[in-house]
Amino acid sequence: MSEPVIHTEQLTRKFGEFTAVDAISFSVGEGEVFGFLGANGAGKTTAMKMLTGLLLPTSGKAAVAGFDVFTETESIKKNIGYMSQRFSLYDDLTARENIRFFGGIYGLSSASIQEKSKALLSSLDLLPVADSRLSDLPLGWKQKLAFSVALLHEPKIVFLDEPTGGVDPMTRRRFWDMIYEAADRGVTVFVTTHYMDEAEYCDRVSIMVNGRIAALDTPTAMKDSFGVTTMDELFIRLVRPGAGEGI
Amino acid sequence: MRVIGFLLQKEFLQIFRNKGMLPIIFIMPFIQLVILSNAATFDVRNVPFNLQDLDRTSLSERLSEQFTGSGYFQLTGESSTSPQALDVLVGRNADLVLVIPEGFEKELMRGGSAQVQLIINAEDGFSAGVIQGYTNDIITAFNRDLIPQLPGSAVGAPRQTISVRSSAWYNPELVYIDYMVPGILVVLVTLVGLFLSGMNVVREKEIGTIDQINVTPMKRYQFITGKLLPFWIIGLGELTLGLIIARFAFHVPMLGSYWLIYLVAGIYMLVVLGMGLLISTLTESQQQAMFIAWFFMVIFTLMSGLFTAIESMPHWAQNMTMANPVRHFVDIMRRVMLKGSGIREIATPLAILTADAGLMLTLAVNRYRKVSD
Amino acid sequence: MKEWSSFVGFVVKEFYHIFRDRRTAAILFGMPVIQLLLFGYAIRNEIQEVKIGIADLSRDAVSQAITDKILSSGTFVLVKNPQSHSEIQSAFRSGAMSEAVIFEPASDREIQREGSMDIQVITDGSDPNVSRIITGYTASVIRDYLSESATTVDEPKGVVPVPLMMFNPGLKSVYLFVPGLMALILMLVSALMTSISITREKESGTMEVLLVSSLKPIQIIVGKVVPYFLLSFINVVSILVIASLVFGVPCRGSVLLLMAESLLFIMTALSLGMFISTITSSQQVAMMISLGGLLLPTILLSGFIFPVASMPLPLQVISNVIPAKWYLIIVRAIMLKGAGFAVLWQETLVLAVMTVVLIGASLRNFSERLE
Ligand SMILES: Nc1ncnc2c1ncn2[C@@H]1O[C@H](COP(=O)(O)OP(=O)(O)O)[C@@H](O)[C@H]1O
Ligand SMILES: [Mg+2]
């Protein structure tokens, strides 16, 4: 593993008395596809928001692209792309307008926006609907577009928060192809999901349970060490320790 | 700068694409301006009037004719007892009952004076005062003709008089509409500006796009400027349309300078929009934002001096209105349009508005957090 | 039976929804109280502290006496002694003064010799109402001076009017405005509450859940209104208590009737909010209509400040669709005049019909969406 681009130590976030993220420590290397798994409410979004500079951690340490998440959030933002859990583009704008807007606020030149817009729309097969509002498009298309928009300014790291939630299996497959393409270009991908099968696509996964990291390894190594054959089984083990053993 | 440009473009696209909102922003205010400006008048006319003539003599008839023929009152019925008169007032069939007692003529002819009772519906104390004024005028005129015919009148006695020559500057005809149109226009522009800006950021919070913006390197002032400018432009556009209506539909005079109006309006819109954005950044849902905006809007409107004079308020309330931007802009609009006030004469309210604008914008930029804690 | 219990469950859910958001609940019940307290004190139209300028060019006994009389009336505050028309002009423009009284030179001699003199009263006519009233005040102060100082010849007095100010002998504007504020505040708060009830469900996507449930459209509509109706009851009570205890507005009629009419009125307002909610597609639009569309019309056309009878005929006609107008008539009649239902049944009927029509229309709009 090369120099880590994301590094956390004992990173913690509390909401009042409640600890949403509990002292998590991990590193992600450049060009890695890092999966963040966990049930709803496990703390995935909260962890990601701290790393993207949207939420201030309560304690611990973390650096993203070499910048500190407490003090250098604005520098972090220049180096990352983000796709939030909720749909992250403007539904009342067209695909073209969304690309233009996000390209613009990331400071791309007009010429480069033009060029990227064309390339992106054609590679996503969106040209015929480039000028209809996103509210009229199916969710899968919108998510693929959102991913491309998150990469528009060529960030080093891209954070994807449940990008495939509610999307059909065919599109999910295609979505992961896009993730690999990005990783091949050297982009580090930090992705959360609650689809266990998607864990298999990641270089390494961490499984979060109640704010803590319960396991962290490559999918194969993890399954081996727990003696299970699927990630699903593994997950049930972690959430309810002792569940699979009594049989 | 370029970043702000992109934000602006996006906001305008969204505003003009919201088909449900367009008529509310661009049509509703003007319908209200045109219709409601006519509603605001304190003129008391055609007062329904009930006659209780218990004397039934030629003199009592002459007196009641003065009332019916005055143009102020409209006879709606007659009564013969006090309970009846009261019923008439309670049932809203009359606001004035003239009671001419039995023996009215006889007393006048014998003693030179006689009383009549005027029962006035004083629910609305103001109108009651006006009605009483009308009746005084009528009876004074009636007496002028009557007294020389009464016994004991010293014909030709010297009477001192003082004539009051009154003139009302700027609005000699006392047209109420001139006074109301500028004020109502201010309230409408404020309403649209405050509500639109108040809902804007919180809406992005609700649908989640705000995170997508916050994760970009955009600066806070760029964000606030980009959010503010579209509504600033729309606000001034609405004001322009309103001024055109004032000029050509209502013939409201414009004695001062349009430049001054726009200078003040430009600053004023910053206050309103800054406040809207502040509300928007402090709230969690559009509903909350609207309730708060509404709360202030009602207070601003009723405490602006638009409908009732500031001087009529108790002192603490008068002091409170100093913090009310609507009060200052209504005041300035009326003064500049109707009296031709120049920048020096409006310096105080203008300075307050400028300070308000600075305060609101600073707060809005500061309270808007890209990183929540 | 099952339907009934799912209806109750629905109502309970709505209740829960309102109270879970503490801030919103605080606003809904705090706002009317604060506003009524504030406006009850501040919204008056008694004219006081008129800023007057006196230019006394004659400086003699008569002008001095009249000046004293004007200033001691309590209505006027002397702010300056303007020396020229341009000084008056600039004082008017800066709002420092609203009236100027000018005594021409040698008024003393004039009135002794000719028996008459002139006094000039100049008012800032940009506010026509104030201008008219203060001119009248000034004239009456001068008339009083004259009748007191005149060497009284024993003239017959002629007809002497004895005014009797019924219902409000002190001519207090509080009595007029507090009922008006009650109408305004209840109207706006109630309509606001329900105006987004349906649209919000549409936007958040929970509408589908409602639609596939076993609830009938009427149950959904009524279930949305009922919790707010019960909650508005709190607003009605607090507003009536403040009106009577804080502002001393008498209730000469039946309190029970007043209460019942108030409940009918909030029902009308809630239904209006509901209706708005069924015709709009987004929360934004719904709120803009219920706030922007109701605020000024309710203030201006209800008779709250400006008497409806003074308005041009077309506006008097339009004012009939403003629910607050009818409630205002009812409240003033019950509180100030002690009127009973026999007098007010027509106004009550209007409100009832409005409510039924609004609910019916909401139901129709809502059901149409189902198809
Ligand atoms: N702003 C907040 N205030 C209070 N609690 C929060 C907040 N955001 C998240 N939480 C809580 O933190 C926990 C983790 O949430 P989240 O990170 O969204 O989980 P996940 O993304 O894994 O589903 C949840 O129990 C959630 O209720
Ligand atoms: Mg999440």
From TrEMBL, chain A:
Example GO molecular function: ATP binding
Q: Which organism is it from?
A: Chlorobium phaeovibrioides
Q: Which InterPro entries match?
A: AAA+_ATPase, ABC_transporter-like_ATP-bd, P-loop_NTPase
Write out the entry's keywords from A to Z: ATP-binding, Nucleotide-binding
Which PANTHER family does this chain map to? ABC TRANSPORTER G FAMILY MEMBER 20 ISOFORM X1 (PTHR43038:SF3), ATP-BINDING CASSETTE, SUB-FAMILY H, MEMBER 1 (PTHR43038)
Q: What is this protein called?
A: ABC transporter ATP-binding protein
ABC transporter domain mapped to chain residues: 6-235
Q: Which Pfam families match?
A: ABC_tran
TrEMBL record, chain B:
Entry superkingdom: Bacteria
Would you name any one GO CC term?
Answer: plasma membrane
Residue intervals passing through the bilayer: 21-42, 176-196, 228-250, 256-279, 291-310, 346-365
Q: Which InterPro entries does the record associate with it? A: ABC-2_transporter_component, ABC2_TM, ABC2_TM_bact-type
Q: Name one GO molecular function term.
A: ABC-type transporter activity
PROSITE patterns, per database record: ABC_TM2
Fetch the Gene3D superfamilies from UniProt. abc type-2 transporter like domain (3.40.1710.10)
Where, per UniProt, does this protein localize?
Answer: Cell membrane
Q: Which Pfam families has this protein been placed in?
A: ABC2_membrane_3 (PF12698)
User: Which segments constitute the ABC transmembrane type-2 domain?
Assistant: 140-371
Q: Which UniProt keywords apply?
A: Cell membrane, Membrane, Transmembrane, Transmembrane helix, Transport
Q: What is its main location?
A: membrane
Query: What is the protein's membrane topology class?
Result: Multi-pass membrane protein
Q: Which family does it belong to?
A: Belongs to the ABC-2 integral membrane protein family.
Protein known as: ABC transporter permease
Q: Which organism is it from?
A: Chlorobium phaeovibrioides
UniProtKB/TrEMBL annotation, chain C:
Note the superkingdom of the native organism: Bacteria
Which molecular function term from Gene Ontology is one that the record holds? ABC-type transporter activity
The residue ranges of the ABC transmembrane type-2 domain are: 135-369
> Native species of this protein?
Chlorobium phaeovibrioides
Q: Where are the transmembrane segments?
A: 25-43, 174-198, 218-243, 255-279, 285-306, 349-366
Q: Which GO terms describe its cellular component?
A: plasma membrane
**What is this entry's stated membrane topology?**
Multi-pass membrane protein
Q: Which family does it belong to?
A: Belongs to the ABC-2 integral membrane protein family.
**Compartments, record wording:** Cell membrane
Q: Which UniProt keywords apply?
A: Cell membrane, Membrane, Transmembrane, Transmembrane helix, Transport
Spell out the protein name for this chain.
Answer: ABC transporter permease
